[in-house]
Give the backbone structure.
Amino acid sequence: MTDETVNIEGAVCAPPLPHDEQIVMGHGAGGRMSHRLIQQAFVSAFQNSALNAGDDAALVMPEHGKLSISTDAHVVFPLFFPGGDIGKLAVCGTVNDVAMLGAKPLYLTAGFILEEGLQMDVLKRVVESMRAAAEEAGVQIVAGDTKVVQKGKADGLYITTAGVGVVRGGVQISGANAKPGDVVILSGSMGDHGIAVLGARGELGFESSIQSDVAPLNHLIEAILDASKNIHVLRDPTRGGLATTLNEIAAQSKVGIILDEQTIPVHPEVNAACEMLGFDALYVANEGKLIAIVAKEDAEKVLSAMKKTRYGEGAVMIGHVAEEPKSRVLLKTALGSTRIVDMLAGEMLPRIC
Ligand code: MG
């Protein structure tokens, strides 16, 4: 880990201090307490040679190819919610963004901003969740940093992550590559993450069994890339939901995107929650879904490859790309009318990721 790193082999095994059940300012001071926190909370969980080396930066062997690099900050409240927590979200969010360019994610870094008084058990649960998500994705967390701020100056803990991956040869994926005639495929149901976080805050007013969909999608993306060389766009509809993400793509590619409302999967409970709160599920955040825009001749092939994967079982075709109206998303409703679907105007659900 950067400044405050200890070599795993060279670590001094000091007896635990009485403060160790809670984060105290000394854990961020760069001294013995910082070293022990890093060793006990992070290095022991993330275990890899680049991290264990204990230098100022992680040394890794680059693979041949273009690099895909992304970064994220995570401030979700509450820290734990049905289906996930801030740690799983941090790893999956970055893995997914790196993978959306057709890359195999390899390495992550993580920065932790801890509030004085945070229970050590909470930190350890979050770190264990990061470890498990990284293992599932097949990435290593190779560097990190820890800072502690005074009680009241943060909300438990925040995590920033960065990720790097190598783009598969011959792959050219971008939000600017959607072409008229392409088919729009969605990997599963919309709105689960946003509604699960609201449920965890007690803001639904009813008991709900909705789980966040937070998941690493890189293996699903490998299956998509194996199935076709004509994948034009991959993107995860996170904040702002499906509607906002498709508007971004329509604008980048200067095309129209025509959706068929009836084909877009939304869980009945998510629908009910949205109706009650006055939300449209197409604007609610997802953390384990992706949009694939694919050449028409390969769409069936890609769809069936997606359906064979854990996180693509619910994949469906939801629409197509058209020449016109440029930079617009249109929705054909169940009633047979057509309406324009705009970008999310402001903030609908603060601190959901
Ligand atoms: Mg994204």
Notes: Residues 331 and 339 are 5 Å apart (CA to CA). The domain at 183-340 is CATH 3.90.650.10 (Phosphoribosyl-aminoimidazole Synthetase; Chain A, domain 2).
